[in-house]
Specification:
Blueprint: H1 7-10, H2 23-34, H3 38-54, H4 63-76, H5 85-96, H6 103-106, H7 109-124
Length: 139
């Protein structure tokens, strides 16, 4: 469980806010942790960073989201392809879901879903990125 921190403890703590990794570092981490091609890692990171900039998520999304999406793709032997319904659903599950959140955030759910789908199409659609294979890769 999560408990509210007591004032006496907070008086003795120093907090340091840290920002997200830069894009190159996020790409390198995603590529290394997932074992996916660099181009795939770049597309995933671009998608997650763009969603982060929408401000629709309560917190994040962090590099952990990039790794989750990348690992699913690696297990499937697929690439980030907007025409792949499993990739699309994976992005929705990882990015748009905000389980156990207050009603205020629950009202944003349709906007989060629409934003994720728009960004998937923008960053992973075959016509917008030359050289992307239009069918998912199979191992």
């Amino acid at each position: 469980g999560v408990h509210k921190t007591q004032d006496a403890l907070r008086d003795r703590m120093v907090t340091i806010d840290v920002d997200y990794f830069d894009q190159e570092t996020e790409v390198a981490i995603t590529e290394a942790r997932c074992g996916i091609p660099r181009e795939d890692a770049e597309r995933i990171v671009a998608l997650v960073r763009a969603y982060r900039e929408t401000g629709l998520a309560d917190s994040g999304p962090t590099i952990r989201c990039c790794v989750m999406i990348g690992k699913v793709l690696a297990l499937r032997g697929a690439g980030p392809n907007a025409e792949d319904p499993v990739f699309e659903q994976t992005c929705l599950d990882v990015l748009a879901a905000e389980p156990n959140r207050p009603n205020k955030l629950a009202r944003k759910a349709p906007r989060r879903r629409d934003a994720v789908l728009d960004l998937v199409r923008q960053h992973c659609l075959c016509e917008t990125q030359p050289g992307i294979i239009s069918l998912p890769r199979r191992a």
